[in-house]
Write a structure and sequence with these properties.
By secondary structure, the chain is α+β, with helices and mostly antiparallel strands. The protein is built from nine helices and 18 strands. The strands form four sheets. Strands 1, 2, 3, 4, 7, 10, 11, 12, 13 and 14 form a ten-stranded mixed sheet that branches. Strands 15-16-17-18 form a four-stranded mixed sheet. The radius of gyration is 23 Å and the shape is elongated. The termini are close together.
Length: 313
């Protein structure tokens, strides 16, 4: 197998104490490939599933906005930290003496839609500067309020001062905020002690490979690669012949193709939403993404050049 250029998605099990950038660098080194990215960060202390994009699949990042993610976590009660997690500075500590059922009930009730401040130790930007930079400089800053959604809380175990559970949340929600809020509702404070991401969109941790496995057997990437055609299962697709493919690759939307997508264009106008459509070439490869824009017809959003050598199975 010739390494150096793969197109597709690779699911990686991130270990603790590495940044998301570290994971990308390790994959880049193992596969000897320059074009590598990811679809969503994990805090250094967190473990679990990262969706890595390789080659032309990096152009899919805007479309790989997985709405739901699932996590396994442990929340420590009675200890507040400035970062809302175990890496932060302890700012208060009180004894916890609750019946386990009270902790369980508080966690199960902490589901739904919330408008919460973003944690100060986060990469969210305010006036072009990351919040954690303000925190390190001890500069006061008004924290932005963000919509967060949590659901499917399943309690695994409850100890006198901690609770372990799984939950699902919307993209961009902060599990640290959920843990801190749980502590506040119980009146003792709390923080996130551990976190593992178990699912992102349709992909689960069980499908992921480890960095150690990639280091030992780079060909595993080829055997584990999710093709670009498979990467967006929720989007509509249309197959076109070679003649239309050549026009599309040159930036032109063939008339016959536009006519075949009249329904999508009408729906975009009716619902006032943009509707992406995958365009599949004669060989079954994803060659482009079109978007039906409300009142604007079809627009070419991405064109993929897949004629470069790829990792093969």
């Amino acid at each position: 197998m010739a390494l150096g250029f793969a197109n597709g998605l690779l699911l990686v099990n991130k270990p603790a104490n590495l940044t998301s950038h570290d994971v990308v660098s390790r994959v880049r080194k193992a596969l000897k490939q320059k074009t590598v990215g990811h679809t969503g960060t994990l805090d250094p202390m967190a473990t679990g599933l990262m969706v890595i994009v390789l080659g032309e699949a990096t152009k899919l990042s805007d479309f790989l906005t997985f709405s739901d993610q699932s996590y396994r976590l442990k929340a420590k009660l009675g200890v507040r930290t400035d970062s809302f997690d175990a890496t932060g500075k302890v700012i208060s500590e009180v004894p916890v003496d609750f019946p386990k059922e009270k902790i369980r009930e508080a966690a199960l009730n902490l589901q739904g839609d919330f408008e919460w401040p973003v944690p100060i130790f986060s990469a969210t930007k305010v006036d072009g500067k990351k919040l954690y930079e303000y925190a390190r400089e001890e500069k006061p800053i008004a924290l932005p309020i963000k919509h967060m959604q949590f659901s499917d809380v399943v309690i695994e175990s409850v100890e006198p001062a901690s609770i372990s559970l799984t939950l699902r949340c919307s993209k961009g929600s902060f599990i640290r905020s959920w843990c801190a809020e749980l502590g506040e509702r119980l009146g003792v404070g709390g923080h996130m002690e551990s976190l593992e991401r178990t699912k992102v969109g349709p992909y689960s941790l069980e499908q992921a490979v480890t960095l150690e496995q990639l280091d030992a057997d780079p060909e595993l990437a080829g055997r584990s690669l999710i093709s670009m055609t498979e990467a967006l299962p929720e989007h509509r697709s249309i197959r076109i012949p070679n003649k239309e493919q050549r026009l599309l690759m040159n930036g032109q939307i063939p008339r016959d193709l536009a006519n075949r997508l009249i329904v999508e264009q009408k729906e975009a106008l009716l619902r006032n939403v943009a509707i992406p459509v995958k365009v599949i070439g004669a060989d079954g490869e994803l060659i482009s993404i079109l978007v039906a824009q409300p009142g604007q017809g079809l627009k070419i959003r991405r064109v993929f050049r897949l004629d470069l050598p790829r990792v093969t199975q």
